[in-house]
Specification:
alpha+beta, Arc Repressor Mutant, subunit A, 4-stranded mixed β-sheet, 6 helices
Length: 163
């Protein structure tokens, strides 16, 4: 099964995702502190990846007295809990659409608008695992980033057909 999940800036979807994150943390016996929750909310409010210092700038305009180590600790926690993914090529973060189960992060990055989509493919996961295992390498985790154009940007850059 393969499908792509776009990150939603839609407020009801974000609210449900935050409530879901709170339930997951409670079930796991970990604490989603107000700062961690706010960082998660800021990450989830974007359809593009967000850098830690952009989060810090946003937090500094609010009541939070956050310093870089505090934001990085919050992001580390969110990564450990599977609530966000790290986008290595951008040194940035995106929310996870499926935090219930551990999974490899396969991200589609639009180089034009910055949109990020999370790709889920059992076939791709199996192929990567099989290929890696055949080499004798033991992988701790796998992350795949594909850069290109999202469907909307690709459609807007195609030349119009002449009749």
């Amino acid at each position: 099964m393969t499908h792509a999940c776009a990150y939603s800036a839609d407020r009801p979807a974000r609210t449900e995702a935050l409530l879901h994150a709170e339930r997951l943390c409670a079930a796991r016996g970990v604490r989603l502190t107000p700062l961690r929750r706010r960082v998660l909310e800021l990450v989830q409010s974007r359809t593009e990846a967000v850098k830690a210092y952009d989060l810090l700038a946003q937090l500094s305009t609010e009541d939070h007295a956050a310093k870089p180590p505090t934001v990085y600790r919050a992001l580390d926690f969110l990564l450990e809990q599977g609530l966000v993914h790290r986008v290595d090529s951008l040194n940035a973060f995106v929310g996870c659409n499926h935090p219930d189960t551990p999974h490899a992060a396969h991200l589609l990055l639009c180089s034009q608008c910055g949109r990020v989509e999370e790709l889920h493919s059992d076939t791709m996961d199996a192929a990567i695992a099989q290929t890696v295992a055949a080499t004798g390498f033991f992988a701790h985790h796998a992350r795949l980033e594909v850069q290109g154009l999202c469907a909307a940007c690709a459609a807007s850059t195609r030349p119009a057909r002449r009749a």
